[in-house]
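Anyone have C-alpha cells for Neurochondrin? Sequence:
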Amino acid sequence: MASDCEPALNQAEGRNPTLERYLGALREAKNDSEQFAALLLVTKAVKAGDIDAKTRRRIFDAVGFTFPNRLLTTKEAPDGCPDHVLRALGVALLACFCSDPELAAHPQVLNKIPILSTFLTTRGDPDDAARRSMIDDTYQCLTAVAGTPRGPRHLIAGGTVSALCQAYLGHGYGFDQALALLVGLLAAAETQCWKEAEPDLLAVLRGLSEDFQKAEDASKFELCQLLPIFLPPTTVPSECLRDLQAGLARILGSKLSSWQRNPALKLAARLAHACGSDWIPAGSSGSKFLALLVNLACVEVRLALEETGTEVKEDVVTACYALMELGIQECTRCEQSLLKEPQKVQLVSIMKEAIGAVIHYLQQVGPEKQKEPFVFASVRILGAWLAEETSSLRKEVCQLLPFLVRYAKTLYEEAEEANDLSQQVATLAISPTTPGPTWPGDALRLLLPGWCHLTVEDGPREILIKEGAPSLLCKYFLQQWELTSPGHDTSVLPDSVEIGLQTCCHIFLNLVVTAPGLIKRDACFTSLMNTLMTSLPALVQQQGRLLLAANVATLGLLMARLLSTSPALQGTPASRGFFAAAILFLSQSHVARATPGSDQAVLALSPDYEGIWADLQELWFLGMQAFTGCVPLLPWLAPAALRSRWPQELLQLLGSVSPNSVKPEMVAAYQGVLVELARANRLCREAMRLQAGEETASHYRMAALEQCLSEP
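Reply: yep, here.
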C-alpha cells in the first residue's frame, strides 16, 4: 500500500533492481493470482511520495487502471483473504498514481470518487492495519484530486462533502483528515459545497459549536480559527449561535495574549456580519458582552493605527471594523436596542477615539495604496460613522474630505473603465482572501449618507464643491440609474443601488437649497435634469418604487424652478411627460374614505402611500411647493395641468370630504397649487369656478384662492 511501500530507488542509477524485477513479473503475469501477487510486491518496494515522476509513470504503464478498477469493485476475495484487502490494494495503487497531478485529474481517477467516498464511512475493525492504511490512501487520493483545477467540483458532485462530514462526525480513524479536506473544499467552492450538502455541513457546525462551548483547553482557540469557515451563507442555527456566543464570552472575558484574542475577534466579526446582533442574547449579559466586543475592537484599532511605522494586521483590524459597525448600529437604534443609554454614551465616546485613529491612518495613505482592500475597509467604517455622526471630529473630517473625494473618484473611474458594474455594489468581506492586483469597489455608496449630512453645513459643503464632488455624484447617479433602466433585471439588484439613488437625490436637494448658483452653472446638472425628465414617467408606474419616484419627482421639480430658462423645459415632449408624471405622484397621495356612522367621508392616504408616508411626506410637501413655484415660470404648465384635470379633481376631492379631516398643512399645500394655476391661466379659473371652487375655498378658509376666483 502507498503508505507501507519501502523506498529502494538508487538515485545515482535511477533504477531499483528489485522494483524492476517485480515490474517484470507484473508484466509477465498470466492470470489474476499472479498479477495480484506481483502487485503486492510492487507496493512493498516503493512509497508513492518517495519516487520520481518517471518511475511513477513506469509503474502506471505496467499496471494501468484496469486491474485497480477490478480490485475496487470486486465482491469475491480469494479464500482466506478479507475482501477489504483487495480494495486496499486498489486504493494504494490509485494513491501512488495520484501523486502525479496529471494522473490525479485523469477521468479514470475522477470516476472513482463516489467509490472512494464510500470507503470513508465504511465501518470495520478500527485496529485493522490494512483498513487504516486504506483510509489513509483514500484521503491521499481525494486530497490529490482536490488540488487539481477542476477537482473540487468533481469531489462535490461525487458526494465527497457529505462523506467527509459523516466521517468527521463519526470520529473514527482519519476524522482529522476529513476535517482538513472539508476546510479545503469550503475554501475552494463554498457555495457549491453548501448547495450539495447543507444538512451534513450544518451537523458539523453543530458539533464544532458544541465543542467550542465546552472547550476548556487551547483547542478553543483553534476552533476560533476553524468555525468561521463552517458558517453557512444562509441562516445559522439558533443552537449554534447560543454555543458560539457563550464560548466567545468566556474567551473574551479573560486576560489573553493577541494570538488568543485575535481569532476570537474575527469569529465575532463573522457572526456580526452574518447575523447582525441577533446572535447576542437580550438582557444584562448580552449588553455587557456587546459593550465588551466594541471596547476590545476600538482598543485594537487604536493600537494598530495610531502607531506610525508598525505593521498593521489588516485581517484583525478589518474584523474590528465590523464589530465597531455593529456598535454604531446598536447605539443609533431607538427600539429594542441591546444597549442602555449610559452604555451608548460610553461606547460613542470610545468609538470616536477609534474613528480618529482611522482618519489618522487614511491621512497617510498614498496613491499607491488606494486600491488596497484595507483602505476600502477603513473608508467603509468611516462612512458608517459619518452616516450617523458628523458633529464630532469635524475639523479632522473636513481635512480628510479632499482625500475622500479623490479616492472615491479613483475607484469610480477604474470600475467604469472595467465596465464591471456588479463590482460597484459588492460588499467587502469581513475576512477577505488575498486580493488580486486590482480591487475595484464602490466607495461612493459608503460615503453618500455622510456626504448627505455634510452638504447641509457650509464649511464641508464648500470643500466638497471645490473638490468636484457634485460633478462626480452626477456621473455616479447617471451610471447607477442605468442599472434600473429598461433592459436590466431590477429584481437581482441589491437594495443598496436604489438606496444609493435616493441618497444621491437627498444630496442634490441639499445643493438645490443651499447652492442654487451651482445648479445653474454646472453642466452636469443639465444632464441630470434630462435624465430625471425622461425617467419619471415610467418610474411612477412601477410597483414598489414609490419612494424613489418621490425623490426623482421632487428633485426634478426643484431643479426645474432653477433651470426654467433651459430649452429642454420649454414645453418639449420630455418636459411635458415629466410634469404629467409629477402631477400623477402629487395627485394620487390622498383619497376620500367613508367612515362608519357618518354621512361625510374623510381625507385619507392612498393605500400605496400609507405604509411609507413617514418617509414620503416631507418629499410630497416639498414637491407641492416646488410645483407651485414652477407654474409662473413655465407658461405652458398651467394649461397642461388643466388638461390633466388635476385642479378640477382636487377641488372635487376637497368638496367630498369633511373640512375637519384635512390638516392645516394640507390645506396650505393645496391652496398654493390652486392659486398659482388660477393666477396663471384664465381657463383654469373658469374650470375651478365650474367645480364650485369659490364655495370650496370658503369652506376651507382659503382666502387667497377665494379672492383669486372672484376676480374676472
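Strands lie at 590-593, 602-605.
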